[in-house]
Write a structure and sequence with these properties.
single chain; about 850 residues; alpha+beta; four-stranded mixed sheet; two-stranded antiparallel ribbon; about 60% helix
Length: about 850
């Protein structure tokens, strides 16, 4: 009795959710199941290929029912002749006849017969494996017959033969050796087959990256008769497929001879998939093999530049530790404090305390003079004397030697000192008048950015083996909107940037009596941001591709065409307008916006300083303009309110280039920050609010933040907003988020923050806040390197994502610390030294 075909006779019995109808399920199941068995069963692949030709009517062999019962010797004889004929380069009459013979025997093959055949080939298999393979072959034959009865046009063997004929002779010869050695069960040959990617469970949940074993493949050393017939390389091939109405990529890892070039890999894949009976054949659109990458000119230049900075850092650190620091200590020791003691030693003087009374041989004591701490050198009659302060009226005189040490040249060198810069970066001390809560907000916002990118980059690089089921599960969680809408974290930075620019600008204008050095206003900003930005981008462009390897690692780096056409747009901070389709260092769109806001900020700041009414009106007009503009753009392009939804919007492709990165759609929070900075300046960081009113404002702001953050929940779950509602949300939500952030800063600075201020002003946030800029620059590079070097996919769960997030966070800040020491802190030191020198002149 003919076994029932689970794929052809009852194709809808399986409960798959990967197609919208039964036919889609049928086609996809046939495709994936046959690919799995073809990869695993070398002999059955040949049998199946023979069978397809007979189904197409290329043979006139009588029906199987009219033929005598076969025996294993018949199968072996026909199989050996078929394999011999297949080694030819063309389709001959003998081959067709051999195909006819095998196809006529296949429907009548039973389990015992197939087991005998495989045993004759020295292949040991179990009864369950035989049963599954036999059902596959017979079920596939039935599926092909069903497609043919439905007038489906296909000639798989002809397509396979056409692709096979285009394979180079070198590759074809190597593949022939591999096939022969597989039949002889040579360990290295079986290892190559074993290293191939194979279909995995979970296709309906998005598991379409079948990477195989990258390291196993590259470790194989073929050997035939004591010689090496060819070297081995790992190749990857991708096919576009459709799962639940979404386009996905099927990626198959292959272990092939190095003699096979790019076109050979494509033709090999076409040869394999041409025999799969689907109405729409799979067509490979991308192939890539691992190659040894030599250091090119750009890499050599980048290494020289990095080596130059490293040499400066080493030299400056040695100079600092062994020369400058000892000299500064010697100078400090020569500083003496003379105390005028009252003769009667009353409460308005300093009394000398003997060593015996004090019990300790102090060299320094701390004086509390009018609540100001000072350190003085003891100067008593004996080595153990101290001076005891009785009153604030004590007069002290500090004798400090005049010294210009270190000089300008020494300070220039010390700008690169790891010792000095490291202490400054890790210090928790802040200058007077600093807005302490800003550091906490800055660091927490950076962690928010990294958390969001942990999810997004894993999806972008197709790291998850269950992306569909995982994201469906996540998007249905209301709490996940904090990740889905994590784009607001960038608006936090825009708000803080505008606030600090405004606050510091107002203080500088007051100190200079309404005047400001406009050259230095712009130069300081450019010098502060650009050197570390350009140097990190140089490393990304020139050296990233040398960082590692892996089954999905690309030898062309992380950037499109090494940014040769677009790097200059980053240098002038116009990469959000120019060459957007070839955008380099893609996450730097934020830096472009921030610089553009800074350039035009005097248009708001100057009127605001001289006139509260005129400045307020100008800011209101700007805010109105950057609110109406995104509403119009959103309505015009029918943009969604969220980029990540269960049902993707057909207009989502315009969200990033037309709305997300444009300054006239992002400036709202920056203007809100400018107004907040002005208010803080006018109030002197002091503004008392009654406790009931304070609590009411906190409650209102918290509710507003939740509305903004969770307002896209319904759209993310497949219930899109209307075009007008989405346009209103896109126009307002960023500015409203800026209002919420501004209140937090204002409340904390003016003493109305309570425990929130205690948390955000925590001293460890000070050094972490200093590293935020460099962490923003480097964290996508670290994530990309990690994901591209993975040998296998990651099964996404809450715990696995949390684990990845903390790894990315810690490593990003560790690398940011190194980058800041090498590229950021030295530039700031050079600026301070040179500008002070010029000022003295």
């Amino acid at each position: 009795m003919k076994p029932e075909s689970a794929f052809a006779v009852q194709p809808c019995r399986m409960n798959f959710k990967i197609a919208s109808n039964c036919n889609g399920v049928h086609k996809y199941v046939v495709t994936t199941a046959i690919m799995a068995k073809v990869t695993a069963a070398f002999v059955l692949f040949a049998l199946f290929t023979f069978t397809l030709m007979d189904v197409q009517g290329q043979s006139t062999t009588p029906s199987p029912s009219h033929q005598p019962a076969p025996n294993p010797q018949d199968y072996m004889s026909i199989l050996n002749q078929g394999i011999k004929l297949l080694s030819g380069n063309s389709m001959t009459g003998d081959l067709l006849q051999q195909v006819s013979k095998i196809s006529s025997l296949l429907p009548m093959m039973n389990e015992q017969t197939l087991m005998n055949i495989l045993r004759n080939l020295n292949i040991n298999v179990t009864s369950s494996q035989i049963d599954g393979a036999l059902k596959l072959a017979q079920g596939a034959l039935s599926a092909v017959q069903t497609l043919q009865e439905n007038n489906t046009s296909l000639n798989p063997f002809a397509k396979s033969q056409e692709s096979y004929s285009q394979i180079s002779s070198e590759c074809k010869g190597s593949m022939g050796i591999l096939g022969a050695q597989v039949l002889q069960q040579k360990t290295w040959a079986l290892g190559m087959i074993d290293a191939w990617g194979k279909p995995q469970s979970g296709i309906s949940t998005g598991s379409t990256h079948w990477l195989g074993n990258f390291d196993e493949c590259l470790a194989i050393q073929p050997e035939v008769n004591g010689k090496t017939p060819f070297e081995v390389t790992y190749c990857g091939i991708s096919f576009p497929i459709h799962i639940t109405d979404q386009t996905a990529t099927l990626y198959l890892g292959m272990c092939l001879p190095k003699t096979c070039n790019y076109y050979d890999v494509l033709n090999i894949s076409k040869t394999l998939v041409a025999s799969i009976p689907v109405s729409q054949p799979l067509n490979a659109n991308y192939a890539l093999c691992k190659t040894e990458i030599e250091y090119d000119t750009r890499a050599i230049v980048a290494i020289i530049v990095c080596s130059f900075f490293l040499a400066l850092m080493v030299f400056a650190t040695i100079f600092d530790i062994f020369i400058v620091s000892p000299e500064l200590e010697r100078i400090a020791k020569s500083t003496v404090v003379e105390v005028e003691d009252a003769s009667d030693k009353t409460s308005n003087g300093i009394s000398q305390i003997s060593k015996g009374e004090n019990g300790v041989n102090h060299q320094q004591i701390e004086l509390e003079l009018n609540a100001i701490s000072q350190h003085i050198q003891t100067n008593g009659n004996d080595s153990g004397s101290l001076y005891k302060v009785h009153d604030a009226g004590v007069r002290t005189k500090v004798n400090k030697p005049v010294s210009n040490y270190p000089g300008i040249c020494a300070k220039l060198v010390l700008s690169f000192s790891v010792w000095t810069n490291g202490r400054k970066l890790l210090s928790t001390e802040q200058a007077g008048g600093t807005l302490g809560a800003v550091n906490g907000i800055r660091f927490l916002s950076m962690t928010w950015v990294i958390l969001g990118h942990t999810y997004v980059f894993a999806l972008l690089f197709q790291t998850y083996v269950n992306p569909l089921s995982f994201m469906q599960k996540m998007l249905k969680r209301p709490s996940f909107m904090a990740i889905d809408n994590a784009l607001l974290s960038v608006d936090t930075f825009f708000t803080l940037s505008g606030l600090l620019v405004s606050y510091l600008f107002m203080k500088e204008m007051k100190r200079e009596r309404g005047r400001i050095n406009w050259f230095m206003f712009y130069f300081h900003r450019f010098w502060r941001l650009t050197p570390p930005y350009m140097l990190v981008m140089m490393i990304d462009i020139a050296l990233f591709r040398y960082f590692g390897d892996g089954p999905t690692w690309t030898p062309f780096g992380f950037e499109i065409d090494f940014c040769k056409d677009s790097w200059w747009t980053n240098l002038i901070y116009l990469n959000n307008f120019l060459k957007v389709d070839k955008q380099c260092f893609a996450w730097s769109w934020y830096l472009a916006n921030d610089m553009q806001f800074y350039v035009i900020s005097p248009l708001l700041l100057v009127p605001l300083y001289f006139s509260k009414k005129i400045g307020g009106f100008v800011c209101a007009m700007f805010l109105l303009g950057v609110t109406i503009t995104p509403a119009v753009i959103s309505a015009h392009y029918q943009l969604p309110s969220s980029q990540f939804t269960l049902i993707p919007s057909p207009h989502a492709a315009n969200y990033f280039p037309e709305y997300y990165i444009k300054p006239y759609c992002r400036m709202g929070p920056y203007i809100v920050g400018i107004l907040t900075g002005y208010i803080l300046y006018k109030t002197g960081n002091k503004y008392k609010i009654s406790k009931p009113l304070n609590l009411l404002i906190w409650a209102f702001v918290a509710a507003l933040a939740c509305v903004v953050l969770y307002g896209t929940y319904q759209e993310s779950n497949g219930h899109p907003m209307s075009v007008s509602i989405a346009a209103m949300y896109n126009a307002l939500h960023k500015s409203l988020w800026g209002v919420c952030v501004s209140w937090v800063v204002f409340a904390c600075v003016t003493g109305n923050g309570g425990y929130v201020n205690t948390l955000l002003s925590w001293s460890p946030f000070v050094p972490l806040g200093r590293l935020t800029y460099c962490a923003y620059l480097v964290h996508p590079i670290i994530m990309a390197a990690y994901y591209k070097m993975l040998r296998q996919g990651v099964y996404a769960t809450d715990f696995s994502i949390i684990y990845l997030f903390f790894g990315h966070l810690v490593l990003s800040y560790m690398v940011a610390f190194v980058v800041s020491l090498a590229f950021e802190s030295p530039m700031m030191g050079l600026e301070r030294t040179i500008l002070k020198k010029d000022k003295k002149k």
